[in-house]
């Protein structure tokens, strides 16, 4: 799996979590306000914790593209944890109906996907624009490769 495919898959999963979290979860489900706080005109009850976890997952998915080998493991494990917490929060909502089972499915899918990506990310190479392809080094030298050879301390002549 390529890095860009992995990031997009995790972003799609976070987007689905966001959509599920922003749905109407029923009365008295996820937005239990503290005592003394009065909500004005709130007819739909969204899962605020679920939306926050989806936002964290989206940030982690984007962060995955920028990390090295150790950082990718940390980011994917954190993504898996946020997905599992999303699933637990969804199942804890007893009045949510089908949304609780959809939340559980997406949470488990996100956790499994992120752990699969963590395992597969060992094959990713970290390259920069100055790295040369192995095939290009066997071809005819040009001015750029001569300068690169000089930088490495090799005499290209």
TrEMBL record:
<keyword id="KW-0472">Membrane</keyword>
<feature type="transmembrane region" description="Helical">
    <location>
        <begin position="45"/>
        <end position="66"/>
    </location>
</feature>
<feature type="region of interest" description="Disordered">
    <location>
        <begin position="129"/>
        <end position="157"/>
    </location>
</feature>
<keyword id="KW-0812">Transmembrane</keyword>
<protein>
    <submittedName>
        <fullName>Tryptophan-associated transmembrane protein (Trp_oprn_chp)</fullName>
    </submittedName>
</protein>
<feature type="transmembrane region" description="Helical">
    <location>
        <begin position="73"/>
        <end position="92"/>
    </location>
</feature>
<dbReference type="Pfam" id="PF09534">
    <property type="entry name" value="Trp_oprn_chp"/>
</dbReference>
<keyword id="KW-1133">Transmembrane helix</keyword>
<dbReference type="InterPro" id="IPR019051">
    <property type="entry name" value="Trp_biosyn_TM_oprn/chp"/>
</dbReference>
<feature type="transmembrane region" description="Helical">
    <location>
        <begin position="98"/>
        <end position="118"/>
    </location>
</feature>
<feature type="compositionally biased region" description="Basic and acidic residues">
    <location>
        <begin position="129"/>
        <end position="141"/>
    </location>
</feature>
């Amino acid at each position: 799996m390529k890095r860009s495919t992995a990031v997009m898959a995790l972003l799609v999963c976070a987007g689905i979590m966001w959509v599920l979290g922003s749905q109407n979860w029923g009365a008295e489900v996820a937005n239990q306000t503290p005592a003394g706080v009065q909500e004005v005109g709130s007819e739909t009850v969204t899962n605020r914790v679920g939306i926050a976890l989806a936002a964290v997952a989206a940030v982690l998915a984007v962060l995955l593209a920028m990390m090295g080998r150790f950082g990718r493991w940390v980011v994917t494990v954190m993504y898996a944890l946020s997905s599992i917490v999303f699933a637990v929060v969804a199942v804890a909502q007893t009045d949510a109906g089908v949304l609780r089972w959809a939340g559980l499915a997406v949470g488990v899918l996100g956790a499994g996907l992120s752990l699969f990506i963590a395992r597969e990310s060992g094959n990713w190479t970290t390259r920069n624009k100055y790295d040369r392809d192995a095939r290009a080094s066997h071809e005819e030298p040009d001015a750029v490769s001569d300068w690169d050879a000089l930088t490495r301390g090799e005499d290209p002549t």
